[in-house]
Design goal:
single chain, HTH cro/C1-type domain-containing protein, mainly alpha, 4 helices
Length: 73
């Protein structure tokens, strides 16, 4: 994917998607270790699985932005 100078929100969205994917991979691993079905774990955790604020700050910093610039944090 190619980004130009005014694409910071698109880059941030892409980075957030990657972070969420990593989070789900970790959840899958934890579910496997606990011998729990991944779908059951996701259902149990519904609404609690989010991108941590620290990850958003790190991603915003990479883009030279603040949380206020990308949306109220």
């Amino acid at each position: 994917m190619h980004f130009d100078g005014n694409d910071a929100p698109l880059r941030l969205a892409d980075e957030i998607r990657k972070e969420i994917k990593r989070s789900h991979k970790n959840l899958y691993r934890l579910a496997h270790e606990a011998r729990m079905d991944y779908a059951k774990l996701r259902g149990f955790m519904e609404g609690e699985i989010t991108v941590p604020r620290s990850s958003l700050l790190k991603l915003a910093s990479k883009l030279g932005m603040s949380l206020q610039q990308i949306g109220k944090g």
